[in-house]
From TrEMBL:
Ranges where the Indole-3-glycerol phosphate synthase domain occurs: 27-247
GO terms of molecular function: indole-3-glycerol-phosphate synthase activity; phosphoribosylanthranilate isomerase activity
Domain of life: Archaea
Organism: Haladaptatus litoreus
Protein name: Indole-3-glycerol phosphate synthase
Amino acid sequence: MNAEGELAPVVQSILRDARNRDTPDERVSVDARSFADAIARTESKGEIPVIAEVKPTSPTTDGNRTDDPVELAKQMVEGGATALSVLTEPEHFGGSPENLRRVREAVDVPVLRKDFVVEEAQLDVVEADLVLLIARFVGDDLSQLVTAARERGFQVLVEVHTRGELEKATDAGADIVGVNNRDLGKLEVSLDTFESVAPEVPDEMTCIAESGITTTNDARRMREAGADALLVGSAIMDGDVAENTQRLVSA
Ligand SMILES: O=C(O)c1ccccc1NCC(=O)[C@H](O)[C@H](O)COP(=O)(O)O
Protein backbone atom coordinates (compact mmCIF):
# COMPACT_ATOMS: atom_id res chain seq x y z
CA MET A 1 0.00 0.00 0.00
CA ASN A 2 1.38 3.40 -0.86
CA ALA A 3 0.58 6.98 0.08
CA GLU A 4 -2.64 6.16 1.91
CA GLY A 5 -2.25 9.33 3.91
CA GLU A 6 -2.71 11.31 0.69
CA LEU A 7 -6.06 9.73 -0.02
CA ALA A 8 -9.40 11.44 0.55
CA PRO A 9 -10.92 10.30 3.88
CA VAL A 10 -13.76 8.48 2.12
CA VAL A 11 -11.24 6.48 0.05
CA GLN A 12 -9.33 5.57 3.21
CA SER A 13 -12.60 4.37 4.67
CA ILE A 14 -13.39 2.33 1.50
CA LEU A 15 -10.00 0.59 1.81
CA ARG A 16 -10.40 -0.03 5.54
CA ASP A 17 -13.80 -1.64 4.97
CA ALA A 18 -12.43 -3.74 2.10
CA ARG A 19 -9.70 -5.17 4.34
CA ASN A 20 -12.13 -5.93 7.16
CA ARG A 21 -14.70 -7.82 5.10
CA ASP A 22 -14.90 -11.62 5.53
CA THR A 23 -13.46 -13.75 2.74
CA PRO A 24 -14.34 -17.32 1.74
CA ASP A 25 -12.06 -20.30 2.40
CA GLU A 26 -12.58 -21.82 -1.03
CA ARG A 27 -10.86 -20.63 -4.20
CA VAL A 28 -13.01 -19.70 -7.18
CA SER A 29 -12.37 -21.18 -10.60
CA VAL A 30 -13.71 -19.06 -13.45
CA ASP A 31 -14.62 -20.04 -16.99
CA ALA A 32 -14.34 -16.48 -18.32
CA ARG A 33 -16.09 -14.97 -21.33
CA SER A 34 -13.43 -13.40 -23.56
CA PHE A 35 -13.27 -9.62 -23.28
CA ALA A 36 -11.09 -9.36 -26.42
CA ASP A 37 -13.69 -11.27 -28.46
CA ALA A 38 -16.47 -9.04 -27.10
CA ILE A 39 -14.55 -5.91 -28.16
CA ALA A 40 -13.93 -7.39 -31.63
CA ARG A 41 -17.66 -8.17 -32.05
CA THR A 42 -18.60 -4.57 -31.20
CA GLU A 43 -15.97 -3.08 -33.50
CA SER A 44 -17.07 -5.30 -36.38
CA LYS A 45 -20.45 -3.53 -36.14
CA GLY A 46 -18.72 -0.12 -36.34
CA GLU A 47 -19.70 0.67 -32.74
CA ILE A 48 -17.72 1.93 -29.76
CA PRO A 49 -17.00 -0.73 -27.13
CA VAL A 50 -18.62 0.45 -23.89
CA ILE A 51 -18.37 -1.24 -20.49
CA ALA A 52 -21.57 -0.07 -18.81
CA GLU A 53 -21.37 0.07 -15.03
CA VAL A 54 -24.14 -0.98 -12.62
CA LYS A 55 -23.32 1.64 -10.00
CA PRO A 56 -26.25 2.18 -7.58
CA THR A 57 -24.49 5.06 -5.81
CA SER A 58 -21.01 6.39 -5.01
CA PRO A 59 -19.27 8.86 -2.72
CA THR A 60 -19.53 11.48 -5.48
CA THR A 61 -23.14 10.77 -6.55
CA ASP A 62 -26.32 12.25 -5.09
CA GLY A 63 -28.94 9.63 -4.28
CA ASN A 64 -29.17 5.91 -4.75
CA ARG A 65 -30.62 4.07 -7.73
CA THR A 66 -32.67 1.20 -6.32
CA ASP A 67 -33.81 -0.54 -9.53
CA ASP A 68 -33.10 -4.27 -9.78
CA PRO A 69 -29.48 -4.54 -11.01
CA VAL A 70 -30.48 -7.40 -13.32
CA GLU A 71 -33.06 -5.22 -15.07
CA LEU A 72 -30.50 -2.41 -15.42
CA ALA A 73 -27.92 -4.86 -16.78
CA LYS A 74 -30.32 -6.28 -19.37
CA GLN A 75 -31.17 -2.77 -20.54
CA MET A 76 -27.47 -1.92 -20.85
CA VAL A 77 -26.93 -4.98 -23.04
CA GLU A 78 -30.01 -4.04 -25.07
CA GLY A 79 -28.37 -0.61 -25.57
CA GLY A 80 -25.29 -2.31 -27.04
CA ALA A 81 -22.89 -2.62 -24.08
CA THR A 82 -19.86 -4.78 -24.94
CA ALA A 83 -19.37 -5.74 -21.28
CA LEU A 84 -20.76 -4.79 -17.89
CA SER A 85 -19.07 -3.62 -14.72
CA VAL A 86 -20.86 -4.45 -11.49
CA LEU A 87 -19.96 -2.82 -8.18
CA THR A 88 -19.66 -5.39 -5.40
CA GLU A 89 -18.61 -2.85 -2.73
CA PRO A 90 -21.57 -2.52 -0.33
CA GLU A 91 -20.90 0.38 2.03
CA HIS A 92 -20.06 3.23 -0.36
CA PHE A 93 -21.38 2.06 -3.74
CA GLY A 94 -24.53 0.08 -2.82
CA GLY A 95 -23.18 -3.01 -4.56
CA SER A 96 -22.94 -6.67 -3.59
CA PRO A 97 -21.40 -9.94 -4.76
CA GLU A 98 -24.97 -11.24 -5.10
CA ASN A 99 -25.77 -8.45 -7.60
CA LEU A 100 -22.84 -9.57 -9.71
CA ARG A 101 -23.77 -13.24 -9.48
CA ARG A 102 -27.34 -12.51 -10.62
CA VAL A 103 -26.26 -10.15 -13.39
CA ARG A 104 -23.69 -12.59 -14.79
CA GLU A 105 -26.31 -15.32 -14.85
CA ALA A 106 -28.77 -13.09 -16.72
CA VAL A 107 -26.53 -11.74 -19.53
CA ASP A 108 -24.06 -13.27 -21.95
CA VAL A 109 -21.49 -10.44 -22.17
CA PRO A 110 -18.32 -10.40 -20.01
CA VAL A 111 -18.84 -8.98 -16.51
CA LEU A 112 -16.18 -7.06 -14.57
CA ARG A 113 -16.10 -7.19 -10.78
CA LYS A 114 -15.66 -3.60 -9.63
CA ASP A 115 -14.34 -3.51 -6.08
CA PHE A 116 -11.27 -2.63 -4.05
CA VAL A 117 -9.32 -5.89 -4.03
CA VAL A 118 -6.16 -5.48 -1.99
CA GLU A 119 -5.43 -9.06 -0.96
CA GLU A 120 -5.61 -12.47 -2.61
CA ALA A 121 -8.45 -13.95 -0.53
CA GLN A 122 -10.79 -11.19 -1.76
CA LEU A 123 -10.54 -12.66 -5.26
CA ASP A 124 -12.59 -15.64 -4.06
CA VAL A 125 -15.67 -13.65 -3.04
CA VAL A 126 -17.46 -14.10 -6.37
CA GLU A 127 -16.82 -15.31 -9.93
CA ALA A 128 -16.56 -12.74 -12.71
CA ASP A 129 -15.07 -12.62 -16.20
CA LEU A 130 -12.75 -9.77 -15.31
CA VAL A 131 -11.49 -8.47 -12.01
CA LEU A 132 -10.22 -4.98 -11.26
CA LEU A 133 -6.89 -4.36 -9.51
CA ILE A 134 -6.09 -0.72 -8.74
CA ALA A 135 -2.31 -0.16 -9.01
CA ARG A 136 -2.29 2.66 -6.48
CA PHE A 137 -3.94 0.54 -3.79
CA VAL A 138 -2.11 -2.75 -4.20
CA GLY A 139 1.37 -1.25 -4.53
CA ASP A 140 4.13 -3.87 -4.51
CA ASP A 141 1.64 -6.75 -4.44
CA LEU A 142 0.40 -6.03 -7.97
CA SER A 143 2.41 -8.70 -9.77
CA GLN A 144 1.48 -11.38 -7.25
CA LEU A 145 -2.22 -10.43 -7.38
CA VAL A 146 -2.27 -10.43 -11.21
CA THR A 147 -0.84 -13.96 -11.14
CA ALA A 148 -3.25 -15.11 -8.42
CA ALA A 149 -6.23 -13.72 -10.37
CA ARG A 150 -5.15 -15.38 -13.63
CA GLU A 151 -4.62 -18.71 -11.85
CA ARG A 152 -8.31 -18.55 -10.93
CA GLY A 153 -9.29 -17.88 -14.56
CA PHE A 154 -10.02 -14.14 -14.31
CA GLN A 155 -8.99 -11.65 -16.99
CA VAL A 156 -7.35 -8.81 -15.12
CA LEU A 157 -7.98 -5.11 -15.60
CA VAL A 158 -5.21 -3.10 -13.95
CA GLU A 159 -6.29 0.47 -13.24
CA VAL A 160 -3.76 3.30 -13.32
CA HIS A 161 -3.92 7.06 -13.04
CA THR A 162 -0.33 8.11 -13.77
CA ARG A 163 2.52 7.13 -16.08
CA GLY A 164 4.39 5.75 -13.06
CA GLU A 165 1.48 3.43 -12.25
CA LEU A 166 1.34 2.39 -15.91
CA GLU A 167 4.97 1.34 -15.67
CA LYS A 168 4.13 -0.76 -12.60
CA ALA A 169 1.21 -2.34 -14.48
CA THR A 170 3.48 -3.17 -17.41
CA ASP A 171 6.11 -4.65 -15.08
CA ALA A 172 3.40 -6.77 -13.45
CA GLY A 173 2.49 -8.26 -16.85
CA ALA A 174 -0.85 -6.51 -17.32
CA ASP A 175 -2.45 -6.92 -20.73
CA ILE A 176 -5.60 -4.90 -20.05
CA VAL A 177 -5.10 -1.49 -18.53
CA GLY A 178 -7.66 1.13 -17.51
CA VAL A 179 -6.61 4.75 -17.22
CA ASN A 180 -8.89 6.28 -14.60
CA ASN A 181 -9.68 9.95 -15.22
CA ARG A 182 -10.76 10.13 -11.57
CA ASP A 183 -7.92 10.85 -9.16
CA LEU A 184 -8.79 8.46 -6.33
CA GLY A 185 -6.76 10.61 -3.95
CA LYS A 186 -8.67 13.85 -4.44
CA LEU A 187 -11.73 12.48 -6.29
CA GLU A 188 -11.27 15.07 -9.05
CA VAL A 189 -12.04 14.04 -12.63
CA SER A 190 -10.29 15.25 -15.78
CA LEU A 191 -10.33 13.64 -19.22
CA ASP A 192 -6.87 15.17 -19.74
CA THR A 193 -5.53 12.29 -17.62
CA PHE A 194 -6.34 9.71 -20.28
CA GLU A 195 -4.87 11.92 -23.00
CA SER A 196 -1.65 12.24 -21.02
CA VAL A 197 -1.21 8.56 -20.05
CA ALA A 198 -2.70 6.68 -23.05
CA PRO A 199 0.12 7.49 -25.52
CA GLU A 200 2.49 5.56 -23.19
CA VAL A 201 0.33 2.42 -23.20
CA PRO A 202 2.05 -0.29 -25.28
CA ASP A 203 0.14 -1.12 -28.51
CA GLU A 204 -0.36 -4.75 -27.55
CA MET A 205 -2.28 -3.80 -24.38
CA THR A 206 -6.03 -3.27 -24.37
CA CYS A 207 -6.51 0.29 -23.15
CA ILE A 208 -9.70 1.45 -21.43
CA ALA A 209 -10.71 5.02 -20.63
CA GLU A 210 -12.46 5.12 -17.24
CA SER A 211 -14.60 7.73 -15.47
CA GLY A 212 -15.98 11.14 -16.30
CA ILE A 213 -17.22 10.19 -19.78
CA THR A 214 -20.60 11.87 -20.13
CA THR A 215 -21.26 13.14 -23.64
CA THR A 216 -20.82 11.73 -27.13
CA ASN A 217 -18.04 14.30 -27.55
CA ASP A 218 -16.27 12.83 -24.51
CA ALA A 219 -16.61 9.35 -26.02
CA ARG A 220 -15.14 10.46 -29.34
CA ARG A 221 -12.39 12.35 -27.54
CA MET A 222 -11.34 9.24 -25.59
CA ARG A 223 -11.43 7.11 -28.75
CA GLU A 224 -9.26 9.62 -30.59
CA ALA A 225 -6.80 9.51 -27.70
CA GLY A 226 -6.48 5.73 -28.10
CA ALA A 227 -9.20 4.07 -26.00
CA ASP A 228 -10.08 0.54 -27.12
CA ALA A 229 -13.11 0.71 -24.81
CA LEU A 230 -14.84 3.15 -22.46
CA LEU A 231 -15.95 2.40 -18.91
CA VAL A 232 -18.98 4.51 -18.03
CA GLY A 233 -21.00 4.55 -14.81
CA SER A 234 -22.75 7.74 -13.75
CA ALA A 235 -23.70 9.00 -17.22
CA ILE A 236 -25.40 5.69 -18.02
CA MET A 237 -27.06 5.28 -14.60
CA ASP A 238 -28.63 8.75 -14.82
CA GLY A 239 -31.95 8.16 -16.61
CA ASP A 240 -32.80 5.54 -19.23
CA VAL A 241 -29.82 3.19 -19.15
CA ALA A 242 -30.56 1.56 -22.54
CA GLU A 243 -30.82 4.92 -24.29
CA ASN A 244 -27.75 6.27 -22.50
CA THR A 245 -25.68 3.23 -23.45
CA GLN A 246 -26.89 3.35 -27.05
CA ARG A 247 -25.99 7.04 -27.35
CA LEU A 248 -22.37 6.39 -26.32
CA VAL A 249 -22.02 3.13 -28.30
CA SER A 250 -23.01 4.95 -31.47
CA ALA A 251 -21.11 8.19 -30.74
O1 LIG B 1 -17.18 7.15 -8.47
C1 LIG B 1 -16.80 7.56 -7.35
O2 LIG B 1 -17.37 8.47 -6.73
C2 LIG B 1 -15.60 6.94 -6.71
C3 LIG B 1 -15.20 7.42 -5.46
C4 LIG B 1 -14.12 6.84 -4.82
C5 LIG B 1 -13.43 5.80 -5.42
C6 LIG B 1 -13.83 5.32 -6.66
C7 LIG B 1 -14.89 5.88 -7.31
N1 LIG B 1 -15.32 5.42 -8.53
C8 LIG B 1 -14.82 4.24 -9.13
C9 LIG B 1 -14.78 4.31 -10.59
O3 LIG B 1 -13.71 4.12 -11.11
C10 LIG B 1 -16.01 4.61 -11.38
O4 LIG B 1 -17.10 3.95 -10.82
C11 LIG B 1 -15.97 4.21 -12.86
O5 LIG B 1 -14.78 4.47 -13.48
C12 LIG B 1 -17.10 4.95 -13.60
O6 LIG B 1 -16.95 6.34 -13.44
P1 LIG B 1 -18.11 7.35 -13.86
O7 LIG B 1 -18.46 7.06 -15.29
O8 LIG B 1 -17.49 8.71 -13.70
O9 LIG B 1 -19.24 7.11 -12.93
